[in-house]
What we know:
There is one protein chain. The chain is mainly α and 115 residues long. 36% of the residues lie in helices and 5% in strands. The chain has helices at 16-23, 32-42, 46-58, 89-97, and strands at 61-63, 77-79. It is elongated.
Amino acid sequence: MAERAVDPETGKKLQWTTLAKIKNGESYRHDRWIVGAIAAATGRDPGEVRKAAAAEWVGLTADDILGMSTPQVSIVVAYQPGTRPEDLPLVKEALKKLDLEDATITVVEERHAGS
């Protein structure tokens, strides 16, 4: 896996020791390029790896709760695990300003890159 862990944008290679730290839940440096290297190593979508990293690094879940993302545009909201749609008044207000007040807000369970 370490051989494949190369960020396609920077060419930086992730060391096997960092992969072991990630696997074991140990502390490691949170550099942006690591997300690309993990995506390359695992064959996962970089957006999904980015969401999992955000959940791990800042303790918030991030997802397309509006179901409106496209391959070109991501609409992602970060929220605390256990949040319910009624707990997101700012999202509802933003939708109203965009004339999307009828959009359905769906809060999904926290997911990680390994799940």
